Amino acid sequence: MNIDPVAILFQIINFSILMYLMKRFVYKPVLKILDERASRIKEGLEAAEKNVKMAEKMEADRDKALSAAKKQANAIVADAKKQADEIVKKAQAKAKLQAKKAMETERSAFEAMMAREEKSRAASLASSVVLASKALLEEAMESKQASALIDKQIKKLDLNQFGA
Amino acid sequence: MKFVIESVVELTLAQKKALESKAKKVDKTATFDYLLDKSLIGGLRISSNSKVLDLTLKAKLNQLRSELEV
Questions:
Q1: Hey, which residues does B6 pair with through a beta bridge?
Q2: Among B5, B26, B27, B32, which would you mutate to test the A interface (most chain A Cβ atoms within 10 Å of its Cβ)?
Q3: N or C: which end of chain A has fewer CB within 10 A?
Q4: Is A125 on the interface with B (CB under 8 A)?
Q5: Which domain holds residue A90?
């Protein structure tokens, strides 16, 4: 086997030209395309990462807002419950007071009625006693007894009250 | 001074004399007016000017009525 140095030299020159052309027209555009693609992918990844972070932040904000709303709602419910308790207590106290007043009024009315009845009974009894006594006295008081009573009264009579 | 004496029955002379004697001790010029009133039931009611001495049974019954009504 013979080695031709000229052929080898041509081969080397050809290869060099080919390498140059490849580098010039193939590698560079391909590398450029690859770089651009890598850049786009990187940008896409960065954007995706940014979006994820934003989504996480939004979720955190939402959780925070939800928690605050829940807390506020709990506070409102507690406040409403407190107010309702106070209203119920006030209503109970008012009802109790009204019942007490009503009872006192009823008691006063009942006592007044009893007093009236008692007075009426006493007056009725007094009338009966006086009428009975009057009847008995009128029957028993003949002129003799009447005169005797006058005698007795004249004996005890003291007319000093008529003096000046 | 004029005395008005009310009674159920007419006073006897002795009674009038005794009564007038007591009245004269108060006023020597006293005069007397005797009236009959059956509603008094018994006893005497003597009045002079605005003063009244009521010793009648009617007055006692009225007093009893007042005491019973209280």
A1: B35, B45
A2: B26
A3: N
A4: yes
A5: 5-155
